[in-house]
Structures are given as C-alpha cells and as structure tokens.
Specification:
Strand order of the largest sheet: 14-15-16-13-12-18-19
CATH architecture of the largest domain: 3-Layer(aba) Sandwich
Shape: globular
Oligomer: single chain
Largest sheet: 7 strands, mixed
Helix content: 25-40%
Number of domains: 2
Radius of gyration: 25 Å
CATH topology of the largest domain: Aldehyde Dehydrogenase, Chain A, domain 1
Number of helices: 15
CATH superfamily of the largest domain: Aldehyde Dehydrogenase, Chain A, domain 1
Length: 516
C-alpha cells in the first residue's frame, strides 16, 4: 500500500494516512479516526488512506472560517491574499512534474494531461491574483449622479464585500483543476473557504492545501475536509451543507448532487453555483475539413478518458460527409494506446474506479443488445486497471439510453443529419446545455448554428478550448453560474448600494424639509 505522495518539495515524502485534514491552519486526523481508502485506477491496488472527516470536523472547519471572516483582517489585507495566490502559482510551476505524477496515479489520466492540468492551475492562480478584491467603501464604484429632473443633491456608491464562508465541493475527474477554479476566486474575493474534494481522487488537493496554499493564508482562511462519499448523510460533507454559517456553496458534480446542494441551502436562502452534467454535441457541417473535425471529435471524447462534463459525446455529421468522417474517426481510434497513466506510450488512461468502469461497460453492453453498431478499434489494454477502450456507436440512436444519458466515458455516438437546423434541433433535444461545438468553413453559417444552440459554451472550429479569461458554465440541467474569468468571482461577492445626501440642517438656506 502506498500511503505517501511522490517526492515533492525538498524530496520529502508526505504521508496522507490519517492526517489529511487541514483545519484552522493545522493538519489533523478525523475526530473519530475514521479513514477511507483510495485505489489506483491503473491496477486496482491500494493507493492511499485518507482521513474521513466527521460532522464534528466539518463544524470545526466552518467555525474557523466563520471566525476568520468575522475578524475582517483577512478581507482587508488584499495584498497578502494576492501574494498567497502568486506564491502558490510559483510553487506549482516548480513542482509540475511531481504534482502531475501524483495526479496521474490518483485519477488515471495520462502524465501529459496531468502536467497540462498543473500548468493551468498555476495560470489560474495568477489570473485571480490579478483580480484580488480591495473592497469596502474606500474602493467603492462611483455611479453617475441623479438626472437634473430629479432635483436631488445626492450620490451613489457601490461597494463590494466577500459573501462569507464558502463551501467548495469538487469532483474526481480534474481534482486539482476543479479545486483551484473555486478556491482561487474565493481567495481573491476574501472568502474563507472549506474545500471538500471527492474521496476517489484528492491527493493533489491534500498536498496543495497542506503544504502550499494553506500556510500562506491566515488560520481559518483555508480548510480541507477529505473522505466521503461526497454527500453522505452522517459525515463531513452533509454537515458542511447543513451549517447555517456557510454563506455560499460552489459545487461541481452530478445532477443528483446538485439537487442535494440546493435542498440543503434552501432553509438559509443560500446562493449556489452549480456545474453539473452535460451531453455535448459536435456538429460537422458539409463544408468542414474532415481531417480537422475528426481530430477534434476524438479530443472531445477521449480527453480524461471521456470523463469530462463538457465532452462532446454526440457527433452530428451532415450526410455528405458522414461516411468519410466515420472512416477517419475509426482509423484514429485504432491508433489510441490505452494503458497505464505513467507509461510514456499511453495516450488514454483508465477510468477512475471499478464502479465507473462497470457503469460505462454497462452502457456499451446495452447498446449492443439494442442492436446498435458498436466499434472498439483500439488494441485492448493489458492488466487489471479500470480500462475501457475508445468506442464508437452508430445506428438508430435517437431515443436510446446511450444517446440521451451522460455516459462519462470514452463513448462517442454518431448520427447523420440533413439540414443545419436539423443538427441544432438534435443537439438541443437534451435536458443538458453545457457545451457544444460546430465545424464549418463558413463563419456566418457556423455563427448561425452557434447562436441557436442552447448551451453556456459553444466552440466554433475548436473543442475543449479554454483559458483563464473564458467564462465557463452551463444552461438548463447543466447548472448555473460561471467559472473562469471575472464572472468566476460572482458567487463569492456581495454588493452594497450606499446613497449619500448632504448632512441636513434645521434652519437657513438648505434647511431640511420633511418629505411628508
């Protein structure tokens, strides 16, 4: 059993065993000493043992964060928060290889993908350092004075403040990225936070909070609860959501989890930001470049072995190009090397867990039994890992389970269409509305499709392309709120309108006159 991370700063081996919590500036075990085990996606072996935060631990974390918020010094010292984010970014860049190795081992993505994730986290930390909030009336936004017709001598200022204690619940597919996407704007806004990552993959989060970001911030400003399952009724996460001192919850995960977050927050009228599931479509119009569009079709379904909420798992191909695109997709899938994430020749790693593997294989098996055409052209991986090969499904797909539901694996469903508006209708015929893509040589034609698609993100002649200043979030059942960009700060701030009139006097010119 591997109980420690890879060699990180100063070549120290960091033990996660029973002290993976971080509360009020200190590493600790769970109050009742309970633990959870996490397994290697590559071979199923025991990878690590983590503290399973109890309800009492959640209470301690929230109390520490609430105290930090009430004291006010954390928010007022914007320079210190900015410095912490910048230093954290610098540390990640210095330790990219170690963090990438740990991430790949923990969640199964390739070493190349994981290194890209770590680099992106550093960029995101730097980006939000540049947006660090210096709030209060001293930094208020001055609005225009009242129109002359109002005959008012008054002014209006809008001041911005942190909303309070932020609960951040993150998934297993992008452990460190998803944590940074939430905690960076929370820190920039001045919100003390409690991070609760998925028990399936959280090792990089533990190391980052305990050894990089946490020590850079005031005690109570940054807290970490590990364990799970994520929304278990009698453990840390549920207690976190039930705590009235939590001012906002930012959640990325399943639709069921999002519903639980909303229900838990309803008694407190607690605002939430939800990034939930998706069933994205990639539309290839008949003037598109077949080779480029086929490459992007694979990017949209094979990144992170298809375990991506924005995956374009439905491929809509205009009839004249259908056969050519299918031929290229199958040929390209055949070249995918499925294998262990740390193997340099691997181009797609395993799924995160045995449960996830069985779920995806169940979709594929039921598609075969429904007489759909299922092709898996890549050579199967060897070993006991949680592998599923790249899969293409064609045939009479409309209305089928695999076409409607989010599979969350490397399974691409392809369907031909006749007219542009038919493709838009097919793409929109889903309860989800996270991300779609359109490929066309005609910018006007592509823009017309993009404009008609019901999704929070649409890529044109690109797929899965983001940078720190690109807001990302869904419509419909895919959630609400944005991550990335200045919009990513929105859940963590509240604004106050301050209207100022001259001090009244009781006599002489300008004397106060009652309005009643």
């Amino acid at each position: 059993m591997q109980r420690c991370s890879a060699h990180l700063r100063h070549a120290a081996r960091r033990c996660f065993a029973t002290t993976s919590l971080y509360i009020d500036g200190a590493v600790s075990a769970a109050s009742d000493h309970q633990t959870v085990k996490t397994h290697s996606p590559a071979d199923g072996s025991l990878l690590a043992e983590l503290s399973d935060a109890s309800a009492a631990d959640a209470g301690r974390a929230v109390a520490a964060a609430a105290r930090c918020h009430a004291e006010g010094a954390y928010f007022r010292d914007g320079a210190a928060r900015k410095y912490a984010l910048e230093r954290a970014a610098h540390s990640l860049r210095n330790e990219t290889a170690a963090y990438a190795t740990l991430e790949a081992r923990d969640c199964g993505k390739t070493l190349k993908e994981a290194a890209g994730d770590v680099a992106y986290c550093a960029d995101m930390l730097d980006y939000y350092a540049g947006l660090t909030l210096e709030g209060g009336l001293a930094h208020a936004e001055q609005r225009a004075p009242p129109p002359e017709a109002y005959e008012l001598d008054a002014s209006c200022k809008i001041s911005t403040y942190p909303i309070g204690v932020a609960c951040l619940i993150t998934p297993w597919n992008y452990p460190l990225v998803q944590a940074v996407l939430k905690l960076a704007p929370a820190v920039a806004a001045g919100c003390p936070l409690v991070l609760k990552p998925s028990p399936l993959a959280s090792l990089t989060c533990v190391d980052f909070i305990q050894h990089i970001l946490g020590p850079l911030l005031r005690p109570g400003a940054c807290n970490l609860l590990t364990g799970g399952p994520p929304l278990s009724e009698d453990r840390g996460a549920a207690a976190l959501l039930a705590d009235p001192h939590v001012a906002v919850c930012s959640f990325t995960g399943s639709s069921t989890g999002g519903e639980a977050v909303l229900n838990a927050g309803a008694p407190f009228a607690r605002p939430s930001a939800l990034e939930l599931g998706g069933k994205g479509a990639l539309i290839i119009l008949d003037d598109a470049d077949v080779e480029a569009a086929s490459d992007h079709a694979l990017t949209g379904i094979l990144a992170c072995a298809g375990q991506v909420c924005s995956a374009t798992s439905r491929l809509l191909i205009q009839r004249p190009l259908y056969d050519a695109v299918i031929e290229r997709v199958v040929a390209k899938m055949a070249t995918v090397q499925v294998g262990a994430p740390l193997d340099a020749t691997t181009t797609m790693g395993p799924l995160v867990s045995r449960t996830q593997q069985e779920r995806v294989l169940g979709f594929i098996d039921r598609a075969r039994r429904a007489s759909l055409d299922v092709r898996q052209p890549a050579a199967p991986a060897s070993g006991a890992g949680y592998f599923v090969g790249p899969t293409l499904v064609t045939g009479e797909l409309e209305g089928t389970e695999i076409w409607r539901e989010e599979v969350f694996g490397p399974v691409l469903c392809a369907l031909p269409f006749e007219r542009d508006q038919d493709a838009v209708a097919l793409a929109n015929a889903s309860p989800f509305g996270l991300a779609h893509a359109v490929f066309s040589a005609d910018e006007t034609r592509a823009a017309t499709c993009a404009d008609a698609l019901d999704a929070g993100v649409v890529w044109v002649n690109a797929n899965q392309l983001l940078w720190p200043d690109t807001p990302f979030g869904g419509w419909k059942a895919s959630g609400f709120g944005k991550e990335h960009g200045a919009e990513g700060m929105a859940p963590f701030v509240r604004r106050k309108t301050v209207v100022v009139a001259p001090a009244p006097c009781s006599s002489g010119e300008g004397a106060y006159v009652p309005v009643w």
